[in-house]
Specification:
Strand content: 15-25%
Order of helices and strands: HHEEEE
Number of strands: 4
Strand order of the largest sheet: 1-2-3-4
Structural class: alpha+beta
Radius of gyration: 31 Å
Largest sheet: 4 strands, antiparallel
Oligomer: single chain
Distance between the termini: 85 Å
Number of domains: 2
Helix content: 40-55%
Number of helices: 2
Length: 92
């Protein structure tokens, strides 16, 4: 009966042997953060940069498709907006 209890308690760690604490405890968190950075954050930043470049290069006369699916021609480019002509006397 006492031998079962002794086995359940397991061996005690010897002096000088660490339990792997400290920085090794943070290693899985660091690895997960690096994976998230390369799979989620970095591609999103790249897409945002490409979209900004595309919007900066818009000029009058360019043919575009707006988010609603309408085809149109750019009439005017302002600082915060773009006017698109989708039909005669119809501008969005």
């Amino acid at each position: 009966m006492l031998t079962g209890l002794a086995y359940a308690m397991g061996p005690t760690p010897q002096a000088g042997q660490g339990q792997g604490g400290g920085l090794m405890g943070f290693l899985p968190l660091v690895i997960i953060f690096v994976i998230f950075y390369f799979l989620l954050i970095r591609p999103q930043q790249k897409r945002a940069k490409e979209q900004k470049t595309m919007l900066d290069n818009l000029k009058k006369g360019d043919k575009v498709i707006v988010s609603g699916g309408e085809y149109g021609v750019i009439e005017e480019v302002k600082e915060q907006s773009v006017i698109v002509k989708i039909a005669e006397n119809v501008k969005v």
